[in-house]
């Protein structure tokens, strides 16, 4: 196992130069006026390589106006890939993920070891976002744009329950764990990477767990991670889905997105369970 950890660390080291060439992300803030008469202050992220993903030195671009923001909103809608891990139905595929509120989290250990995780996560409440398409929006009044604060490329925005949000915002965690899936096995270790390295350079998809429950020690955290998170990578779950939803019934893009929504809802149940135990789980993506 130690040899495996070393090999992955070397892989991460050589992947590091690629990270800087994976695009950028901008957050656009405005007041949304809907055709049903409702209005609210909200924002959406736009990430990648295209126009709109970068800001000039003065902090603006061609979309930094009311007309421009609405134009970009329509462009984002056509991507069909906005916040898929937060979707709960296939009807949300061609809609834009708009936030009413988003917290930026930097986790800190209870025992200060002199090193701090500088990863910035994004979390939202269950009522802190919605999916909209342009037919529902009457107008958008642009307010401002800013570079994305969170690690948008390698972390996903997670939903946090109202009871756990205060803990996450104001308390320090007892211990943490990295969980990386290999086939159907979940391999866990708190020293697989230095804090933050997997977020910046890590391979593939995995999870990082922050435990705020004083009754859960390192051994128990590892046991729970292996027992619960392995289900999220269970190939049987995917096979059962494919039997009920054959690929030929959809084009490739729609089929992939629908499968992601199905898996996302199943994984969400597991992440909610961890929160009920005082454990925050973030999904993470490698950049290679």
Low-confidence stretches: 1-20, 191-203
Major beta-sheet overview: 4 strands, antiparallel
- Number of separate strands: 12
- Overall shape: it is globular
Task: Give the tally of structural domains.
Answer: 1
Strand content: 25-35%
What is the arithmetic mean of pLDDT? 79
Our measurement of the CA-to-CA distance between the termini, rounded to an integer number of angstroms, reads 22 Å
Structural class: alpha+beta
Q: Helical region count?
A: 7
Major sheet strand order: 10-9-11-12
Q: What characteristics describe this protein?
A:
30% helix, 288 residues, alpha+beta, disordered N terminus, single chain, 4-stranded antiparallel beta sheet, 7 helices, 3-stranded antiparallel beta sheet
Your description of this structure?
By secondary structure, this protein is of the alpha+beta class. The chain has one domain. 30% of the residues lie in helices and 26% in strands. The protein is built from seven helices and twelve strands. A four-stranded antiparallel sheet has the order 10-9-11-12. A hairpin with a 2-residue loop joins strand 9 and strand 10. The longest helix is centred in the last third of the chain and has 25 residues. It starts with a helix and ends with a strand. 28% of the residues are buried. The N terminus is likely disordered.
